[in-house]
Design brief:
It is a single chain. The protein is mostly helical. It contains six helices and two strands. The chain has two domains: 61 residues, Winged helix-like DNA-binding domain superfamily/Winged helix DNA-binding domain (Arc Repressor Mutant, subunit A); 50 residues. The protein has a two-stranded antiparallel ribbon with strand order 1-2.
């Protein structure tokens, strides 16, 4: 039985790397996943242990092919990203839209014209 994981749950960097690979490929065997991992690549059994942990936490499922397992995601990349952003927004910005916009204006050097275009697009979409 799969455990229900928290939407805002942060994966370890290696777990996230594995999920990024599986999201990109759609499905993969452990040896395929290893081909895409960044150096230093842990031993096969360590990777397999991480994959099984992701499975037990409800991130992955598998289809069995003889003794091999082909893993596929149970969580969409979009849902994971949204959960992380929501957690960041609430925990670090206190849910403040002003702080969020201020961050993008100052730190990401968003041009005021870009912001005005975004507001215009949002208003247009809201009317639909």
């Amino acid at each position: 039985m799969l455990k229900k994981k928290s939407i805002g749950e942060k994966l370890t960097s290696r777990e996230e790397e594995i999920m990024q690979i599986i999201w990109e490929l759609g499905k993969a065997f452990p040896k395929e996943i290893m081909e895409y991992l960044k150096e230093p690549i842990p031993p096969y059994n360590t990777i397999l242990s991480m994959i099984r942990k992701l499975e037990s936490k409800g991130w992955l499922a598998f289809k069995k092919f003889g003794k091999s397992h082909q893993y596929y995601p149970l969580v969409d990349k979009k849902d994971y990203s949204k959960g992380l952003f929501t957690k960041l927004y609430k925990d670090y910005l206190g849910g403040s839209k002003e702080l969020l916009l201020s961050y993008f204006m100052k730190e990401e050097d968003v041009d005021i014209d870009e912001l005005e275009k975004l507001v215009k697009d949002l208003r247009k979409n809201k009317k639909k």
